[in-house]
Amino acid sequence: MSKRRRQPMRLKLNPSPVPPTQHEIDAILLATDAIISLARRAGVVLILKGSRSQKALRWKWDELPEYGLLRDLTTAEIGQKVDWCIQQNWIRLECERDGIPLLFHTPWGWERVKELWVQRVLGWFEGWLAAGQPEQVWPRLEEIHRDIKLMTLDEIARRHDARFVPILRAWFPHKVRKVRSAINETLESLGQPRLSEPRDKGH
Fold first, then answer.
1. Both 127 and 70 in a single domain?
2. Could you list the residue range(s) of the whole structural domain that residue 127 is in?
């Protein structure tokens, strides 16, 4: 006998009557991004509240930059703000195999998340430069989405900020050809010579 498919769970939204601030929306987007496709709405609430629950600690959510960003709010208030973001198409719910609704990006929300990640990555760059450790760029950026890497390079070129040249040079040997090409284009925009393609790197 075939296994009966479980009906998707329906989640009734209770959006905040007052729109969240941009800071709150950004916090919700980044917390969602940290657990994208892995956790439910309640997980985002636990992260932003700074919960010390067994679940939060087991998943090491307390190590996330977003942990406790909205700790001054109640869990109910955070939940309402999350629901508002769902209602306003910043994030979306999608039922997975077991019918449990998990959080995912919307195209609109993903664009904002990428912008926020560019700001975060540039902050890392500035920290590594201040510490005299441009080599920290790798493997720190290994897991970062390629769109974010390319947008970061575009932002450096837009700012015409030559401070980041040591970071770009340290980053170059570790990347695939498309990103290396973008790094070289950024270096050229800063008045720097292009770097030679490493022999042992593929495309």
1. no
2. 111-189
